[in-house]
Specification:
Two copies of one chain form a homodimer. Chain A contains twelve helices and twelve strands. In chain A, 43% of the residues lie in helices and 15% in strands. Chain A has helices at 10-17, 21-29, 36-49, 55-62, 81-93, 107-119, 134-142, 166-179, 196-211, 228-238, 253-265, 299-315, and strands at residues 67-72, 97-102, 124-128, 147-150, 161-164, 185-190, 220-224, 247-250, 275-277, 294-296, 323-325, 328-330. By secondary structure, the first copy, chain A, is of the alpha/beta class. Chain A has three domains: 10-53, Orthogonal Bundle (434 Repressor (Amino-terminal Domain)), CATH 1.10.260.40; 62-164 and 299-326, Response regulator (Rossmann fold), CATH 3.40.50.2300; 166-297, Rossmann fold (3-Layer(aba) Sandwich), CATH 3.40.50. The structure holds a DNA duplex (30 and 30 nucleotides).
Chain lengths: 338, 338
DNA sequence: TGCTTTAACGTAACCGCTTACATTTTTGAC
DNA sequence: GTCAAAAATGTAAGCGGTTACGTTAAAGCA
């Protein structure tokens, strides 16, 4: 009789079922390698004892965990939620479990989490964006843990990625508003240090300005953390300049929602007094009033493709192939021509 | 020379530093048990080799992982985000790592995730709400994994919890609107099956109705998944009845945001034509127009206290003590007296 | 100096599983 | 019924750490 006060091990099952531990292991991992009769007997014992194989032991012996780790900058807002959900679902279909950590946009924390996940035996890692210490990639190479980067496409980057061209997207959005007559541009961006998405979006705005004969130095740029309250505060700041912008381009929808709030607080009407744009097209974008003109990102497709690709890299032991997904401008009511 | 093509193990470090593996282990786990001289030498080798102890091996030998698992119903909306973030931060301060999974509001999936996290050696678990198969608690007991439930307070429940009284809170909110003259109530709730929060909030509404002489059966109740789109659709549905409600009470802010959108689509003004309330007081609540009257939940405090308590349970091997946190009504513009 | 304590370090068993290899049993052809 | 091949099962060696216990070196004291 196994000690009922502690978790049953494979030995308990083996003893109870009168087989060797190898056989128990086989009915779990390779069922049709064992005869139907013993298989059923063993399964019954497993059931009766409520046995769950110990992951650590399993990992040590087999070097596989069927676990994927993902480290996202934040769970506080919904930016990554949808894509991650799709990622998780696609992973689940393929028999993998997703473990998520958040780094609070801190490089040091991210590094810690990466080591943590790897030490825990993650078979692969999903990371957001390319900006990080190259030493991390060396470490990952050494540990033979495949990595895939999402939310950012850069064919020159060291890691394969499934993402979109942040710079080109933001340039396109900016050009569209410049075409509508906007000349005095302000931008509320997320903190760009260690964040290529933010950095490239800023660059995209400048690209558009240059292309249209505007002085990129005239861009009134403020960097703040990604939160509604920060967007609100930053908006007040840009509207307090001597030459007020006719449009405020925001690094993402959360910031843009904050900007719209900020406008209301100042008694300004969007888009009559000032236009606002977002980026990402999360649900928030069509809940705020006015609804946000923003850049639509194929979150779910990105998550799904990332799952597919990462699993492929793991199972076929091959390099990942990058993909540049298309984004598209969604015109809503927060921008008007001037 | 250790094989540079593979991750260094404790043996590599020991060999290089000319000590035994026991000593290496000690400099990592109990540094002042070894002399300064050897300690420094070993540390240098660890540094040079980029050695990270293997978690699985460590767990097998020591039975501790300093990892806490949390399973939340969803990452798609921000309901749990803030509390979880606080939970994670508090955990981090105490030297623990948080691993998060989401169950998509599915009991089966949650069970799977629980087993997964336990098999992975989570030292403790944070679960949301009390509704689940009691067998799960048996399993957790047997595995000696402490569990703490959050987002719901119930002193009669099997697991200790840090939460709030969903029923009383919703009753209070309902009473406040009834006091303002509302008599025809509708409610858009999340799916209440396997979800005590949703169930208790519905019960709270009925409590209030009974207390004020209204027929609880007259409540027009619709249950939908928690999403803005669902809230929107449900709103159209309740407004399509013969006797339209004067107020629509929503199970949470996400649904309420959807309801407000829905109202706008139907050309209805909130709160002039119909009032709307939410629950949770997430950022979304003050971004929508009109801002939501809702029930404020102390998310961050809840997360922090949960971390503290769970770590206490683990380290002092004691039972958890439950706490009933206070919520409070936040009056904004989405409700008006009739 | 010699002997006892204490500090520092080493030895090796063990944690719970997988899997290569060895052994036994079953199957099927003659 | 034999015997070879195939199927089923068992044996035992790791995987990479931790730690109880034993051994050696240093320290303290008469």
């Amino acid at each position: 009789m196994p000690d009922s006060s502690t978790a049953p091990t494979i030995d308990d099952v083996a003893r109870e079922a009168r087989v060797s531990t190898a056989t128990v292991s086989r009915v779990i991992n390779d069922p049709d390698m064992v005869s139907a009769k013993t298989r059923e007997r063993v399964q019954a014992v497993i059931e009766a004892l409520g046995y769950t194989p110990n992951f650590a032991a399993r990992f040590m012996a087999a070097k596989r965990t069927f676990t994927i780790g993902a480290i996202i900058p934040t769970m506080e807002n919904a930016i990554f939620a949808r894509g991650l959900q799709a990622f998780q679902e696609a992973l689940h279909e393929r028999g993998y479990t997703l473990l998520v950590s958040s780094s609070a946009y801190k490089a040091k924390v991210e590094e810690e989490q990466i080591r943590n996940l790897v030490a825990r035996g993650a078979d692969g890692l999903l990371l957001i964006g390319h900006d990080r210490d190259p030493a991390i990639y060396d470490y990952l190479d050494r540990q033979r843990v495949p990595v895939l980067v999402a939310w950012s496409y850069d064919e020159t980057a060291r890691a394969p990625c499934i993402g979109f061209d942040n710079r080109a997207a933001m340039r396109a959005l900016t050009e569209s508003v410049v075409d509508m007559g906007h000349r005095r541009l302000a931008m509320i961006s997320g903190v760009s240090e260690q964040n290529d998405r933010a950095r490239l979006r800023i660059a995209g705005v400048r690209d558009a300005m240059i292309a249209h004969g505007l002085d990129p130095a005239s861009l009134d740029l403020i960097e703040v953390p990604y939160s509604i309250a920060d967007g609100q505060a930053a908006f007040a700041q840009v509207m307090n300049r001597d030459t007020k912008p006719s449009i405020v381009l925001c690094g993402n929808d959360v910031l843009a929602a904050g900007a719209i709030s900020g406008a209301e607080q100042l008694g300004l009407k969007v888009p009559d007094d000032v236009s606002v744009t977002g980026f990402d097209d999360i649900e928030l974008a069509h809940v705020v009033r006015p609804p946000l003109t923003t850049m639509h990102v194929p979150h779910r497709a990105m998550g799904q493709m990332a799952a597919e690709e990462l699993v492929g890299m793991i199972e076929e032991k091959r390099k990942g192939v990058s993909q540049n997904l298309k984004t598209s401008i969604v015109q809503r009511a927060s921008v008007r021509a001037v």
